[in-house]
Each structure stands twice: as structure tokens, then as C-alpha cells.
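Exercise 7. Given the encoded structure of a 111-residue chain, write a plausible sequence.
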């Protein structure tokens, strides 16, 4: 209901398009900062476990995390273009997250 009222105000009052764009930009930047902060907190909490990863697994972990963060930063580009680039965005985000997760959890598996 509240979202409907906000949408009605944005449509009814002229000149709110710029304000809406500014609010969207601020929210997007805040989202990226929060994601980076959470990743930093996870790194800080699991720093010793990450340091015990083998060389290639550590590279895979940090590479996957970096690609995931860069993909999140480039989200507006991918979504604005639409079509195939949305699929590329999903593949990049999913693949990099999976790679980082597998690299971190592979040393924890006991066979």
C-alpha cells in the first residue's frame, strides 16, 4: 500500500523524476557499501581459515569474490542493456559465488 502511494506521488507530481533518480543512486551506492562491509566482516572472521587454503584455492576464492563484487557494481550496465546481458550477469554472479564457496569449503570436506 505504501509503495503504491509513493508510486502515485512520483507519477502525479512533476519534477520528481530527478529526485527519484538521486534516491535510487544513493540506495545503489549504499547497497554496494553494505555488501563490501559484509564481505570484509566475513574475511575478518575467517581470516585464519582463508590463510590455510592452498595457493590455487586461495586465488580461486579471492578471484570469485572479486568477480562477484565487480558484477554487483556493474549491475546497472547489465540490466539497462537487457536481453543476453542479463543472462551474462546471472552467470557471472552465480559462477563467481559458486567458485568462491567451493574453494573455501573444499578444504573443510573430509572424505
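Solution.
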Amino acid at each position: 500500500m505504501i509503495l503504491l502511494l509513493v508510486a502515485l506521488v512520483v507519477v502525479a507530481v512533476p519534477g520528481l523524476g530527478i529526485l527519484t533518480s538521486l534516491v535510487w543512486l544513493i540506495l545503489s551506492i549504499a547497497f554496494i557499501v553494505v555488501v563490501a562491509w559484509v564481505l570484509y566482516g566475513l574475511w575478518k572472521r575467517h581470516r585464519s581459515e582463508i590463510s590455510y587454503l592452498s595457493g590455487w584455492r586461495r586465488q580461486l576464492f579471492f578471484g570469485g569474490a572479486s568477480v562477484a563484487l565487480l558484477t554487483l557494481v556493474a549491475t546497472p550496465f547489465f540490466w539497462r542493456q537487457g536481453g543476453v546481458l542479463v543472462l551474462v550477469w546471472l552467470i557471472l554472479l552465480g559462477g563467481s559465488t559458486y567458485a568462491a564457496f567451493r574453494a573455501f569449503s573444499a578444504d573443510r570436506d573430509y572424505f
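Remark. The mean pLDDT is 82. Students should compare their own answers with the one above.
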